[in-house]
Recover the amino acids of this structure.
């Protein structure tokens, strides 16, 4: 929104924008001051988007950016009802990055009723299993850790302890002194974040070159990842001419 | 001088947006802007180069949703009206700015742009610009590949082989019908790759796809050629890796070319400066303002500071400098890489097509200049297609690539986070229920078959990566939320009807008319079992 555009709006609309942008004390501000503060807030929002998103995402979002910060409701005013759940007991695990996964689950009405009758509050949990191979031998003891959840929870972001591993989750109810597995998820494979035999050749051949000011002796993958998403190319080359 | 190959890839995609019940619909502007500001200018550049016998090779992914919209009569009519509106506004703008020579010149430039676009769209392409791309492909100037049917982020569906198959097979069938030949290449939406995706591609006769740096960097073994030669994945399908440095030069607003102060600014548009009564038909219901396309300022000044007017002559000079610089850096890069590997590197530069023209106004001019300069430059840089590269170098290192995308930090966080995670429990449920319907109704005909086919369309439409992307970026979020809910709702109505052994014909006909893409879809594609 430009200053001109904001100036054309009634005070009530300006205050509504200020409220949505989290501007404190907007009720007591004069019109001109309010406009200045809203412009600053919009600029901050835009800068935040720029910082948080990489160049591919910033470029791609411009395809949809026809409103210039205006918050537009859909012209389609119909309400499309969708269920909150599907009366099934199931859990699904999704990979976000090598150390973060997302699980969503639901419990059928029957299982939920059973839980309410038999289990004490706080006796529902996720058991996150880490396995080194999909087909486990009988004597294998996979690692696991538990995350307590509430009956009204239905999703969780899970920090994975290690990359290059496989995981699955059980939704478990603790009842009558025993654990009952309500449902088991799919298996996900977290990708590797470690690079074997990293050297300057590999950095050159993956387009991450011209690190004149950086040392790679420590070979910390996290540093390389951050360079990939941020400063992988020194601009000296472009400005050299 | 070492030689190297340049594989330039443009991804042309928009989600399926079509609202026949409304006289005009705001989000349909996405398509009209893309046609007038990117696709027609690119066709102009490609045809000019062809007329001048300049050899070039550009690879384009044209998504099935975009192709469906570009061949849809209703949307074609609306595109004509859009262009007529802009011409009308242009005439007013030329008059309004008549006392300001700088702005007046710009107003005349835009008016001329829209008149040219109108003439080309209506007279040359008869409202179907895909004809232009098809002709160029026949001449061997461009290669057109496909992508997932509704541009879904495929790593989220690797546990659902029937969904992967439906996305890929529907895309291949749709592409073959529209372009008259089967695609050999596949654009992974958002460069989203996870092991297993290539199996579905291979089963649909795809020979190559493109992937991100992370896929190669964290591959099963050290990639001998890095991203500068394709990897041979499971089943022999080739994966080309994205080069970051060329992408950065073209994509990065801060450090690449598009943000230069001489270039036209994307955001400042008269639609947000002028009073409502002046804008007239540019406005939507309730005074909703969208870009008009008339932008008079250069990339200068912060919001509260004075911006400098856009000067096309200065921008043209900068385009030449940047084209020279791009080639200079490319040659340096080739020289550096060639010292490390035993074959000429292939530098893959994938971009969203709408970077050129829509966002970076001078982008098509830049592309033309680069291609002309490469031609003049004794062919040290050889424009190449993936097919011709693979003919020359059929044997490539076998690698298992890693899960990745071109999104933030190289993974999936853009398409799965707190703003959009709620959609996946529904979409996955729809896929499961669609598989169940295929089992229950394996050989339906007539009305039930129509209902099942529409159910398959709704499942595919719900999976578009655009909706979670828009929810994450916050632009047009209410629309994206509504769209996902609409497709879930439509599917569940059909599912419920079929369970009750009844179909509401009138309702079904209405949604068939609205969401009318993939006319030859066969719902049984969701029947694939692992």
């Amino acid at each position: 929104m430009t200053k001109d555009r904001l100036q054309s709006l009634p005070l009530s609309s300006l205050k509504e924008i200020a409220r949505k942008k989290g501007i404190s004390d907007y009720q007591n501000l004069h019109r001109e001051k309010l406009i200045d503060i809203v412009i600053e807030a919009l600029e901050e929002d835009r800068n935040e988007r720029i910082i948080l998103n990489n160049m591919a995402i910033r470029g791609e979002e411009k395809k949809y950016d026809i409103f210039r910060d205006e918050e537009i409701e859909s012209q389609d005013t119909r309400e499309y009802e969708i269920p909150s759940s599907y009366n099934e007991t199931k859990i699904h695990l999704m990979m976000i990055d090598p150390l973060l996964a997302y699980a969503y689950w639901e419990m059928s009405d029957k299982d939920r009723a059973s839980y309410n009758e038999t289990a004490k509050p706080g006796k529902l949990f996720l058991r996150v299993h880490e396995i080194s191979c999909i087909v486990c031998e009988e004597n294998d003891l996979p690692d696991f850790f538990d995350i307590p959840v509430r009956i009204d929870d239905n999703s969780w972001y899970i920090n994975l302890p290690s990359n290059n591993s496989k995981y699955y989750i059980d939704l478990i109810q603790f009842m009558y002194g025993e654990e009952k597995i309500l449902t088991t998820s799919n298996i996900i494979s977290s990708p590797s974040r470690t690079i074997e035999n990293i050297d300057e050749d590999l950095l050159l051949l993956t387009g991450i070159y011209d690190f004149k000011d950086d040392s790679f002796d420590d070979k910390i993958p996290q540093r390389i990842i951050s360079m990939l998403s941020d400063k992988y190319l020194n601009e000296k080359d472009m400005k050299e001419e | 001088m070492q030689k190297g190959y340049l594989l330039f890839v443009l991804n042309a995609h928009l989600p399926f947006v079509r609202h026949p019940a409304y006289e005009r619909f705001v989000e349909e502007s996405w398509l009209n802007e893309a046609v007038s500001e990117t696709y027609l200018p690119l066709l102009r550049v490609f045809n000019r180069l062809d007329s001048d016998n300049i050899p070039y090779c550009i690879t384009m992914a044209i998504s099935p949703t975009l192709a469906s919209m570009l061949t849809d009569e209703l949307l074609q009519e609306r595109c004509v009206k859009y262009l007529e509106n802009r011409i009308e506004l242009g005439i007013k703008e030329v008059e309004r700015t008549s006392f300001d020579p700088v702005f007046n010149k710009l107003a005349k430039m835009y008016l001329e742009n829209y008149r040219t676009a109108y003439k080309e769209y209506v007279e040359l392409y008869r409202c179907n610009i895909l004809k232009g791309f098809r002709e160029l492909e026949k001449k061997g100037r461009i290669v057109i590949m496909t992508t997932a049917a509704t541009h879904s982020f495929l790593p989220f569906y690797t546990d659902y082989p029937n969904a992967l198959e439906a996305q890929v097979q529907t895309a291949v069938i749709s592409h073959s019908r529209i372009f008259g030949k089967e695609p050999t290449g596949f654009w992974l939406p958002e460069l989203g790759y996870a092991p297993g995706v290539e199996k579905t591609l291979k089963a649909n006769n795809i020979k190559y796809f493109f992937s991100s740096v992370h896929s190669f960097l964290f591959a099963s073994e050290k990639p001998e050629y890095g991203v500068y030669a394709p990897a041979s994945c499971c089943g022999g399908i080739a994966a080309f890796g994205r080069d970051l440095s060329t992408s950065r030069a073209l994509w990065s607003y801060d450090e690449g070319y598009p943000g230069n102060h001489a270039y036209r600014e994307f955001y400042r548009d008269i639609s947000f400066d002028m009073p409502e009564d002046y804008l007239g038909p540019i406005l939507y219901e309730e005074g909703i303002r969208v870009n008009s396309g008339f932008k008079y300022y250069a990339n200068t000044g912060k919001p509260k500071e004075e911006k400098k007017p856009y000067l096309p002559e200065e921008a043209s000079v900068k385009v030449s400098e940047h084209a020279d610089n791009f080639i200079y850096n490319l040659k340096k890069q080739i020289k550096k890489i060639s010292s490390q590997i035993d074959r000429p590197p292939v530098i893959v530069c994938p971009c969203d097509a709408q970077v050129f023209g829509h966002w970076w106004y001078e982008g098509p001019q830049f592309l033309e200049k680069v291609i002309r300069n490469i031609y003049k430059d004794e062919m040290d840089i050889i424009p190449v297609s993936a097919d011709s590269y693979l003919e020359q170098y059929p044997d490539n290192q076998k690698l298992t690539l890693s899960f990745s995308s071109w999104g933030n930090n190289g993974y999936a966080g853009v398409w799965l986070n707190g703003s959009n995670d709620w959609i996946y429990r529904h979409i996955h449920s729809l896929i499961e229920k669609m598989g169940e319907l295929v089992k229950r109704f394996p050989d339906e005909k007539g009305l039930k078959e129509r209902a099942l086919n529409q159910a398959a369309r709704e499942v595919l439409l719900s999976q578009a990566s655009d909706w979670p992307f828009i929810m994450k970026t916050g632009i047009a979020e209410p629309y994206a939320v509504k769209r996902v809910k609409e497709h879930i709702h439509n599917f569940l109505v059909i599912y419920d009807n079929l369970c009750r052994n009844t179909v509401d014909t009138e309702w079904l006909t209405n949604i068939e008319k609205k969401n009318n893409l993939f006319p030859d879809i066969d719902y049984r594609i969701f029947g694939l079992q692992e």
